[in-house]
Design a protein that fits this description.
By secondary structure, this protein is mainly α. Helix content is 60%, strand content 5%.
Length: 560
């Protein structure tokens, strides 16, 4: 593409009878082009001040949506388990990776310093995935030179307000850091490909290691990234070598540029990157060199996950992810579908936008083929689809400026693109506010609200605390007869007298056991076992869909 041509400077050039800079490149047959073609892919087409303000606004919006009242929603079952691991790590220095049950160790160790400084709280533990969510938006903004400033802004805005990205950025689970490290790997690899800098090779290696240390499904993401790269290369062969916009692939690759500085230094950089990858992998899985078995178990996790992935545990039909995306993240899905052909057949084909589309739809296909499906996995393809969607917004601006508002120009193109982005982001923002701040435990309306702890569960926590207040203690002894009780251990983490047996533990000593938590189906049995010494408090307390808890308190401590 030629140099950027501002509308005002074009008019001045015409008044002076001179051809505007860059017009000759766009003219047919050497004649001056009648109208300047909007330039939306150089990465500098938006004035720097406007770019800075827009990028800051997107980041601040992402931060506000992720940090507003994070304690409002009760912890999910999985969050409670993760909080239990973190609590043991902080208070006892104890953590051992177990591939048969849970994901990688990075979430706990990355949260540990913050928890040590600020204490254990729901806000603190959810702050970590929230910051990774904002970091993902920041990484998308760094792609402006690859897809264009308008596309990068649109992609970042789509992720900033995405119902999935906001909802699971407010979850203490592994998914948001996992997606961040995937995108960080791609960005660092691009910068290494472009510059040949050893520092970017190190960043790519570290990102890959953190990716594999976060979840065992990293091999799916890594494989899909490789297939997406092959898709772009094959497409370039099909189109006959025509160079796509934003492509630096015509020159030497990153390793060739690195070798240009000297063969010995290049070898040292590659060896250093490999050592860094192994060091990070071993450090995390060995619990920082205190549990050597964890390193071997990290390889065993692949077999465990393969068995789980093809089981009927959390089994869903192949079209589940598409249905969920259409219900909650339709703007990203639709724009992503439009971005793929725009990157392939548009006037200024984008290699990276095509790569992002192949990456996103490739992961969508891969996870759809796996029987095991949970809604937070949509984050893996929502982010790359947002990049393709941002490119679709940008190309719409170019098309609208040329077809709908002739004579076209950058200003009109930006306006058209901004209007489409505003509509898409507005629709997503409305859904985000509803699902995160109003109906955050309504699993009937919202597929992302998956087996979520109900808000009424917090009433049970408060009733147990009131029993303790009546007894004159902040740590009331109680027993849990229900086999379903997570995330109750998180909320009672400061109570050493809390018991989580998961079964009736009769006979109960009323002097030590001030309350008993049971499942609704255990009501009749518990009434017989507890007798007149205890009284039922309230009716029931919803834990999650299909599970309701009941509470018995020592009769003299029960509310009158």
């Amino acid at each position: 593409m030629g140099k950027q041509v501002a509308t005002a400077s074009t008019r001045r050039a015409r008044k002076k009878g001179r051809q505007a800079p860059g017009a000759a490149k766009r003219a047919s047959g050497g004649a001056a082009a009648p109208h300047a073609e909007p330039e939306l892919t150089a990465g500098r087409e938006i004035p720097e001040r406007a770019w800075a303000y827009a990028a800051a606004a997107v980041l601040l919006l992402a931060l506000a949506l992720r940090l507003y009242a994070p304690e409002m929603k009760p912890l999910h079952h999985d969050e409670g388990v993760n909080g239990f691991f973190l609590t043991n790590l902080l208070r006892e220095g104890r953590y051992a990776y177990d591939p048969a049950n849970y994901h990688g160790p990075t979430l706990y160790y990355l949260t540990l310093p913050l928890a040590a400084l600020a204490g254990l709280s729901t806000f603190v533990i959810r702050l970590v995935p929230a910051l990774f969510g904002v970091g993902t938006v920041w990484l998308l903004l760094s792609l402006r030179r690859r897809v264009g400033a308008v596309a990068a802004l649109a992609a970042a805005a789509l992720v900033a307000v995405s119902p999935a990205c906001v909802f699971y950025s407010r979850y203490f689970i592994h998914e948001m850091p996992f997606v961040f490290f995937t995108l960080a790997l791609v960005v660092a690899a691009l910068r290494f490909r472009e510059t040949g800098g050893a520092s970017y090779l190190m960043l790519a290696s570290a990102s890959a290691a953190m990716l594999f240390a976060t979840k065992e499904t990293a091999f799916i993401s890594a494989g899909t990234l490789g297939l997406a790269w092959l898709t772009v290369r094959l497409w370039e062969r099909v189109v006959g070598g025509a160079r796509a916009r934003g492509d630096e692939g015509g020159g030497p690759g990153g390793f060739a540029k690195l070798a240009a500085g000297g063969e010995s230094s290049a070898s040292a950089a590659v060896a250093g990157a490999a050592v860094l990858f192994v060091f990070i992998w071993v450090a995390f899985y060995s619990s920082f060199f205190t549990n050597g078995k964890g390193v071997a178990d990290s390889f065993r996790a692949l077999a465990v996950w393969r068995e789980t992935g093809m089981s009927e545990f959390h089994g869903k039909p192949p079209g589940a992810y598409i249905e969920w995306l259409f219900r909650e993240d339709a703007p990203i899905l639709i724009l992503g579908l439009l971005g793929a052909p725009a990157a392939m057949f548009g006037r200024g084909r984008s290699r990276f936008a095509l790569f992002a589309a192949a990456w996103g739809f490739g992961l969508l296909a891969a996870y759809s083929l796996i029987s095991y499906k949970t809604p937070w996995l949509v984050l893996n393809f929502v982010v790359p689809l947002a990049v393709a969607g941002g490119y679709a917004v940008q190309e719409f601006g170019v098309w609208a400026a040329r077809r709908l508002f002739p004579p076209g120009g950058p200003g009109r193109a930006w306006t058209a693109a901004a209007a489409l982005a505003a509509v898409a982001c507005g629709a997503s923002l409305y859904r985000t506010c509803v699902i995160n701040f109003v109906e955050y435990d309504d699993d009937v309306k919202h597929p992302y609200v998956y087996s979520q702890t109900q808000r009424g569960f917090l009433d049970l926590v408060r009733e147990i605390e009131r029993v303790g207040e009546r007894a004159g203690t902040k740590t009331p002894g109680f027993s849990t007869a229900s086999p379903d009780y997570w995330p109750l251990p998180w909320y009672m983490r400061d109570n050493p007298r809390a018991g989580f047996e998961g079964r009736p533990n009769a006979p109960y000593d009323p002097q030590k056991t001030l309350a008993v938590v049971g499942k609704e189906e255990q009501a009749a049995m518990l009434e017989r076992v507890l007798g007149d010494a205890y009284a039922r408090v309230g009716d029931f307390y919803p834990l999650r869909p299909g599970v309701r808890l009941i509470l018995f308190a020592r009769r003299d401590l029960a509310p009158r």
